[in-house]
Amino acid sequence: MPNTKVLPLLDPAAGGSAAAPCCPPLTERPLDAGEAETAARMFKALGDPVRLRLFSAVASHEGGEACVCDISDVGVSQPTVSHHLKKLREAGLLTSERRGTWVYYRVEPSVLAAMGQILTGRPAAAA
Amino acid sequence: MPNTKVLPLLDPAAGGSAAAPCCPPLTERPLDAGEAETAARMFKALGDPVRLRLFSAVASHEGGEACVCDISDVGVSQPTVSHHLKKLREAGLLTSERRGTWVYYRVEPSVLAAMGQILTGRPAAAA
DNA sequence: GGTCTATGTCGACCGCCGTCGAAGCAGATG
DNA sequence: CATCTGCTTCGACGGCGGTCGACATAGACC
Prior knowledge:
The structure is a homodimer.
Chain A: H1 33-45, H2 49-59, E1 65-67, H3 68-71, H4 78-90, E2 94-99, E3 102-107, H5 111-120
The first copy, chain A, binds a DNA duplex (30 and 30 nucleotides) through α4.
């Protein structure tokens, strides 16, 4: 099971895969403890340079997905790459799927839009 | 000197305080090491629940600024609040100014727009 | 089955970071 | 000057987390 545990960062009650942020925009009102905990998990996942490069590599790869072997050249050992990809998966930012010999990662739809909306307060365009 | 060191997260060569992101959108191309280092600093600063609450409290406060005493009720000691506000300052997300007895914090203009653009790829509206 | 490649997991090391109490500093006020 | 309040800095503690080498696992292929 490649996807061990995906945290519920998006409100599933919003129907389909629409961007439903976990929290109001930061400028709307002070976040409470629970909202802050949830949102901080997402930002924290992108708060490491290696993870940010891996995420960007997947997000910008043709077809919207990338094999681990395509993105492993970030200057750290292979176990470390695997470790960071797991963190991104657990944060709900990436999903993974094994196809034959290789494992492909892709960006969880609507996560980018949701995070953008928390920051800017603007509903992001449909992905 | 309240502002000990503000990291240059925005490109000052863009004229004025316009939103000039340090990096291309994550979906455009893989970030290089330097870009990832810079962008990760911003996300990391918001990757702590206490810091996120403090930032949100300042960002949503009337007048766009808040005294430390207005936002200190986040469940940690006052030195810890000060520590986190310093981190947010050093990350370039907040500025501070002493006026008489109190110290006021405000959100660095265009930072929210810049981060949003990195995520969504869309130029954010003027704040 | 045996082996080879691609990933993930384990265990250990170590530095970073969030936390606190105590002390220091800056203005205000008397 | 003395003192009080608001905030920052200091020093210490403890745990989280990034990193690696070694090992385990999953398919592919012979």
